[in-house]
Amino acid sequence: MSLLEANPEFEALLDYLKHNRGCDLTGYKRSTLMRRFGHRMQNLNIDSYQHYLQYLHRHAQEYLALLDDVLINFTSFFRDRDAWDYLASDIIPQIIASKQPDEPIRVWSAGCAAGQEIYSLLILLAETLGIESCLQRVQCYATDADEAALKQARQATYSALEVSSIPRDWLEKYFEQTDQDYVVRPMLRQKIIFGLHDLTQDAPISKIDLLVCRNVLIYFNPEAQASILVRFHFALKKTGFLFLGKSETLVNRKQIFTPVHMKHQIYAKGLKLELEDHLAINPTSRKAPSAKPPTSQTQFWQTAFETNGVAQFAVDLSGCLVGANEQANILFALTLDDWNYPFHELEPGKLIAAHTSVKTLYCHRRPVKLKDIERNTAQGTQYFEVAIAPVLNAKKQLLGSIVTFVDKTECKRLTEQLEYANAQLKRVSEALQATQTKLESAQQEIQILAEDTYRREQRSRGAEE
Ligand SMILES: C[S@@+](CC[C@H](N)C(=O)[O-])C[C@H]1O[C@@H](n2cnc3c(N)ncnc32)[C@H](O)[C@@H]1O
Q1: What's 81-269's CATH class?
Q2: 322 within 8 A of 316, measured Cβ to Cβ
Q3: Contact, 193 vs 142, CB < 8 A?
C-alpha cells in the first residue's frame, strides 16, 4: 500500500499521538501528513506505520522530532512582495485612518515561523507611522505551534541570504549587522510578544486590527480550516482585516469574511457568526462532528436561539457554558475563552450564584425563576429576571439547562416611578383628607355657632315679646 493512501494504521498512529502525547494532528490534511511521516520513517529506516507506532511507544521524545518535520517552517521576509505592497499602500492607511491619533493598533501574525512575517509587518507599520509612533501605538503578537521556530523568531538573527528580500535602506534602518548575520534592532524586537499557540486548540487573541496568517491554513483539512476561521472572526475587531497566503482558498461557506482584494488574499470581517459556527470550535462538538448538514428544523431553532433578543446561555450538566447567543455575548462581553468555562465563575453565573446553589442551576429538573437580580455597572444598576429551564432529551434525560436573562431595568424604573407617584398621591390625598376634616369641623363649628346665634336671637325675641 502506498504511504499516501489513507489507512487505519495511520489513523491509529494519529490517535496515539493525540491521546498519549497531547499532539493533535487530526485536523491536518492526510496527504501532507503522510509525506512528512514517511520522511521521518525513512530517516529511521522504518517501513510501516505499525512499526513506527511501536517506535513511538519506546521513544518518548520521538514525537518532538516528528513534529519538527510536520510543522513546515518555510518563510521569508515580504513573501509575495506585491501583496505586502498592497497592504502598505491600501490596508495599513485604512486601519490608521479608522483610529484616533493615539489609539493602539493591534496586529497578530499567527503561524509566524521564525519571525520574518511579523518583522516585515512591523517595518511597514514603522514606515507608515514613523518609528516613534509605531513603538508607542502598535501592539504586536506573533504565535506558532513550534517552540523551536519561536525561539529563532525571538532571537531575530538572520543570514545575508535571508535578508536579501529586504530593501537596503530598511535593512540599515531596522537591522544591526554582526560579523555574519543581521539582527533586528532591539527596539523593534522588544515590541513583539511571542507565544506558543495552537490555532486548532487555543483561544484567539482578541481585538485585532490586522491578522496575518499566511501559508498555514493550507496544511489543514476543510473542517479544521473552518474552525480556525471562526476563531479568527472572534479575534478581529469589526473593522479588522485578515491577510492569508497567496495560494490559500478561503473555506468561507457563510461569508464570515468578505474579500477586499482576492489576488492578495486580504479579507474584511464579514457576516456575524451563528450558533453552528460557535459549535464548530467547541471541543466537545469537535469530538463527534456531525456528518449531516443541519435539517431546516434544526436550523430554525439554532437561528431562533442565536437571534433571540433576550440573552440566553446553554449550560451543560457539569455546569460549563456550552453556548451563548449574540445578545448574551454583547451583554456580558463574553469571548471565546469563556466557552467550556464553569458558568458560575463567569459574570452572569456569579450574579445568580448568590441566589441559588450551583446544583439547582444546572441539575434541577424543574424550571426556576429568580427576580430582581442586580448587576452594578459603571452606567448604573441593572435588574434582571432570570429563568433557568432544564433541557431534557426524548428519553427525559437531563442534558443541562438554558439560562435566560431578561432585562427588567426599565420596568423596574417605571415601577419605582409609579410607586413614587402613588406615594405622592397618597400624601396629597391624606392632606386633602385632613383639610376636608378641618373644613368639616369648621363647618360644624359654624353650624353650632349659627345654631347658638339662632337660639340666642330666639330667646331674646321671646323675652321681648
Ligand atoms: C509554512 S509556515 C508559514 C510561515 C509564515 N506565516 C509565512 O507565510 O511565511 C507554516 C507555519 O505554521 C505553523 N503551524 C502549523 N500548524 C500550526 C498550528 N496548529 N498552530 C499554529 N501554528 C501552526 C508551523 O509551525 C509553521 O511555522
Answers
A1: alpha beta
A2: yes
A3: yes
Grid coordinates standing for 439?
373644613
CATH placement of domain 8-70: 1.10.155.10
Whether the CB of 244 sits within 6 Å of ligand 1: no
Q: Distance (Å, rounded) from C-alpha 336 to C-alpha 231?
A: 8
Roughly what angle, to the nearest 10 degrees, separates helices 62-70 and 30-44? 130
Burial of 22 (0-12, 13-18, 19+ CB in 10 A): exposed
In this predicted model, what pLDDT tens digit does every residue of 104-125 receive, in sequence order? 999 999 999 999 999 999 999 9
Regarding beta strands 208-213 and 236-244, do their DSSP bridges make them parallel or antiparallel, or are they unpaired?
A: parallel
List, for residues 175-198, the tens digit of each pLDDT value.
Answer: 999 999 999 999 999 999 999 999
Q: Which residues contact 438 (CB under 8 A, 6 or more apart)?
A: none
Q: Which atom of ligand 1 is nearest to the CA of 146?
A: 25
CA of 293 to the centre of ligand 1 (A): 30
Query: Does an H or E element contain 23, and which?
Result: none
Write down how long the chain is: 465
Q: Where are the domains of the chain?
A: 8-70, 81-269, 306-407, 410-465
pLDDT confidence of residue 4: 46
Does the reported pTM lie above 0.70? no
The predicted structure's pLDDT at residue 358: 67
Q: What fold characterizes domain 306-407?
A: Beta-Lactamase (3.30.450)
pLDDT tens track for 231-277 = 999 999 999 999 999 988 877 666 889 999 999 999 999 877 766 66
With contact defined as beta carbons under 8 Å apart, do 101 and 81 qualify?
no
Q: How far is CA 113 from CA 73, 144, 235, 307, 332, in A?
A: 5, 6, 20, 39, 35
Is any atom of ligand 1 closer than 6 Å to the C-beta of 228? no
44, pLDDT greater than 50: yes
pLDDT score of 361: 67
Give dist(CA 462, CA 465) in Å, integer.
5
| Residue 48 in grid coordinates | 510501516
Instruction: State how far Cα 327 lies from the chain centre.
Output: 14
Best residue for ligand 1 mutational test, from 25, 144, 154 (most atoms within 8 Å of Cβ):
144
For residue 90, give every residue at least 6 positions away whose Cβ sits within 8 Å of its Cβ, in sequence order, or none.
Answer: 261
Ligand 1 test: best mutation among 216, 220, 265, 281, most atoms within 8 Å of CB?
A: 216
